[in-house]
Please model this.
Amino acid sequence: MLTLTRTVTFHALHRLYRLEWSAERNREVFGPLSEEPPHAHDYQCAVTVSADGGAPPDLLVDLALLDAILADEIVTPFHGRYLNRDVPAFAQTLPTCEALAAHCYRRIAARLPPGVRLERVRVSEDPTLHADCSRPA
Model:
């Protein structure tokens, strides 16, 4: 299978804090990551696509279209934001790498043109931590 991966970056803030827990319980589980002010990451989001047999092997997807989708679904809604507060999807959900990858996967998959399949979304907080959300087999 031939795939193509495009990576975008965004700078965002978050904190690990469950609203239904007390401040003490959050501190116990998440330590200083639960405290205000939030902490920042320079995230990378790598999106891997493939195409059905009808696509030419030298052009799986129109890059301008893919870039526009990634700008609309990842960069614009997340860059410079405090994810817990500014992004409705994370008002009640922890904005972890795992949650970001799953959220981005759903949003991007819904926007791809016919014949283009989303294989994987990888969200990295830093060089040591990333989460993947992949297409079901």
